Structure formats: C-alpha cells, structure tokens
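re: that complex we talked abt at group meeting.

here r the seqs, copy pasted straight from the sheet so there may be weird spacing, ignore it
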Amino acid sequence: MAQSPPAVAIRHLVKAYRRGGQVVPVLSDINLDIAAGEFVALMGPSGSGKSTLLNLIAGIDRPDSGELRVGGTDIMGLDEAELADWRARNVGFIFQFYNLMPVLTAFENVELPLLLTGLGARERRERVGIALSMVGLADRMEHYPSELSGGQQQRVAIARAIISDPAILVADEPTGDLDRVSAEDILGLMERMNRELGKTIIMVTHDPAAAQRARVLKHLDKGSLVD
Amino acid sequence: MHLLKLILRNALRHKLRTLLTVLGLLVAILSFGLLQTVVDAWYSGANNAAPDRLVTRSSVSLVVPLPVHYRDKIRAVDGVRSVAAANWFAGVYQEPKNFFPQFAIDPLPYLAMYPEYRIPADQLLDFLRDRKGAVVGRKLADTYGFRVGDTVPLKGTIFSGNWEFVVRAIYDGATPRTDTSQFFFHWDYLNESARQRAPQRADQVGVFVVQVTDVARAAEVSRAVDAQFANSAAETLTETEQAFQIGFVKQTEAIVIAIRIVSFVVIFIILAVMANTMAMTARERMAEYATLKALGFGPGFLGSLIFGESLAIAAAGALLGVALTFPVADWFARQMGTLFPVFEVSAATVQLQLACAAVVGVAAAVLPALRATRVRIVDGLRAVG
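got the structure back, here u go
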C-alpha cells in the first residue's frame, strides 16, 4: 500500500529577521515531516523560533531558503494572491487572543471565511450552524465577542478555523489567555477536531499540560529542532 | 452586503469619535458652501447680465459723468435698439448702514431692457405718471417694509439735500437669481432738481445702458459708439453689461480671492483631521486587518473597508452640511439685508461641496489603506489595538 505524503514536509529551512542593520537568525536548517492527521505540539523557550516555524507552515511568513511543502504544495513558489487563496482553502487559524472581529456576531465571525468561497447564503447559514453546534455555541450565535467569555471566544475561533474544512489547523498558544478549566475545554475540542475530523493540528505552546494533549512533541531551541 | 455591514459597524464603533468627525465635516462643508455662495453673490451682477445689453461710461472713470446729449447720438448708431440713462444716486435711508442701490433712470426704455423685472401693468402706469414715483424690488420692499403708496425719504450724498420718493410699483424677479434689491426713480426728476440745487450736476449721466438689435454685433456696436466720441472732451468706453459688472468685482477681487482661499483652507483642515482619524482607526485595527489577510482576504477587501468607512463618514458630514447650507444661507441673507442682492446656494456650490467631501473621504483613507494592505501578517498580528 502506497504511503500518503506528509501534510508538511520541510527541508533545510532557514529564516532570519533583519533588525536595523543586523541579521538575526531565527530558524536554521529545519527538517521536519508532519504526517496527515497528526496532532503536533511545538515547544521551546521564548525566542526559540517555534511561532516563526508555525507562521511559515501556515503561509503567513516566508522563509529565506529551503523547501516547504504543505499538503503537497510548494508554498514558497506561490505569489501573495495565490498564497492568500491557498491559506483560505487549506489552513485554519487559532490565535492566542482569538482575533475575532468585535463588530461581528459569533455567527458572522464564523461565516467570514465562507465569504471567500462563493457559497450561497443558505448553505453558509447551515454550515455555520453546524460548526457552532460542534463547539457547543449554537445558542450564542447572535452574541458579540464582548458578550462571550474567553473560552467561548476561543471556541468561536475554532469554529471559524474549521468552517471551510481546511486540512491543517495551526494554533499559536491557543490556551495562553485562558484559565485552566477553559484551557482544558479548548484542548479537548482540538483533540476532537483531530480525532473525529482528521484535521492535522500544529500547536505552539509553552504549557507542558497542553503539549501532553498532542500526539507528537517537537522541541525547538535557538532556531533548531532538538528532537 | 457583508462589506457594507462591516463598514457601517466599523464606522459606528467609536461613536463619539465618529460623531465629532462628522460634526467637523458638517461645519467645514457648511462653511465652504456659505463662502462659495458669498463669492457667487459677488459675481451675481455679472452672471445675471444680458448679452444684448451694453454699458457706455466715461473712458476716464466711472465717477466722471457724460453729457446727456450723448443719448441721441448713441441711439443713432447702427445696431442700437434702445438707450437709457442711469445715474447712481447713493442716498441714505435713515442711516448709512441701510444700504441699497438707487438709480435714476429713463423709465420706459430702461425697464423695457430689463424684462426680468416683473412689474404689474397698473403699478407701472402709476410710476410713469408720477415724476416723484419709485419702483422698488421685492427683496428691498420686504427688508424695509415698503409698500405701494409709502413715501421713502433719502438723504442725498452725491446729489445733496433731502429727497422724497413715493413707491408706485414693486417688481418681482423672473427667477430667484434676479436682483430685487434695487430702487429706481425718474432721471428727469433728478435732473430737474439738480438744475435747482446743483446746476453743475445737471444734464449729466452716469452711464448709458444700450440695447443692441443683434447680440452678434455687440462688439461692433461698442466700437461704433466709442468712435462717435473719440477725441472729444468726454470720450466713452462701451462694454458688455457682463464686462462692466466684472469690472466692478475686479475692484474688490482681492477680497474674493481671500474668501476662496479661506474656503479651501477650511476643507484642507478637515482633511487633516479626517486623515488623522482614519490613521488612528487603521492603527488600532491592524491586528484585525492582519487576521483578515491570514484568513485569505486580499488587499482589495481591506482597502474597501478603509475607503468605505472614510467615505461613509465623509458622506454623513457632507449630506448634513449640504442640508444645513440652505437654511443657514437663508438666515445669513436675511441678516445681510440688501448687501447681497442675490444670495442663493447654487447647484454648482452643492456639487463642489459634495466633491470636496468625496476628496476628503478618499484622501484621508489613502495612507491608512496602503499601510493596512502592505503590512506583513506576522507584524500585523503582533500589533496591539
């Protein structure tokens, strides 16, 4: 039986930032394969490059050199418009501070990515209803983010991340702004997305308890993968 | 639809800030409209001039009179249909601040040349029969409460002494832009009185208003009239009524230019205020724009959001400003009395107001939109609102 290609394939990836006249290396010679359907936690101290690696995989930042294939696509070869289109179809984002639009209701926030798909209003409504039900917020559709708790806002963000059925979810410190109970709730939800929907999840976290919920742990230190 | 919803909700997100910006725009657009209307009022005489009317005056200066016998010579020039004498009287009604234009005229030919002054036939007859009679415009009559039969005393300045006229007719304008702030009386009455009071001023005319038979021949007739009096003691300068009126405005052109400059300075100031508001708004929302970009929304969507919000605020201020311009201009015109014979907000002024608001709306959004569309997603996500 043929082996399915990895969801993420990284070879000799290098990334540096320029601050003033100085070049600050962030990632050096990263090699990493992430299998489809995997739940990976990226850990490491501050400044180790884990968020940068996540951003590169998600296509919101560009590496300096190396190879980066996500879902079989060489995303380094895509121009800005193609990359935006690719992200809309393939990546769901979960941010530490939820990043919901404060002027939109939970329903409208979740509906946002579908506006790029050309789906009709009825189909969008059905899909948003299902996504919000999956995260347990079917009764809070008309609430604005300011009317929801942090945990509830993150659940709305997860519904938004899965609404266009992307293969990969990227989560940057998804529980970093939550209390323990809400964090457990969110991690449980992410586990469900991984287990029941087969989403590949790549999560950056400082929290060892959160990392324990992933099936694969990767550590970064000073821009290199250490295991 | 979603874009519009997002634009409107964003615009109302900081209600006080939006309200203050809209108020600022309202005041700017209103001020701009009023100042433009003042400029229009300045030029109203020129704008209302008829192409078939010429004005003949002394080539030396407007204050130098012409002999009355020129009237017959001008009438004899080929292409002239009619001639009427007119003298600026400059009388004071009660006190100097009560200014309104007064002219001693040859009644029949003069009024026939101005069909835009609508006078009831019976009142016109009464005026023609009474050598001390006067015709007053509706605006003037309303301002000072003149009614037919009233006696109007004027204290002469050029023609000294106390003068009394009886209002025999009130004329209306053919259009709202017709000047109805004037006061006309018989040139013969002025001349007869001048013979007794100041003989040196008798038989002299300020200007002759000349009507031509063919508008296309106006320049030719002007030259022919002036040629009649070339090398005489009182040479003439004949020009179209419009050129004559513009000549008046040119004497105060510096004021008009200053008003124009101020009106655009007001717009520039509100542009700076609006640009600052939009820059502040965009800076606060940088993380949201970065999130939208991460989700796959392109620069066009972000640009539409920012331009849309800026234009929505500008439109609100502009519409309120334009709507208020009319009642405020009416109030201003009433306060000014007959100082501005015509004080009407023109369609061109409204168009200019809307165009300025559109320019402000677009220009204020350019830099914030560029910044939002160019910001790297990772930098934008780090931004704290």
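couple things i noticed - The first strand of chain B starts at residue 53 and ends at 58. Chain B is about 55% helix and 15% strand.
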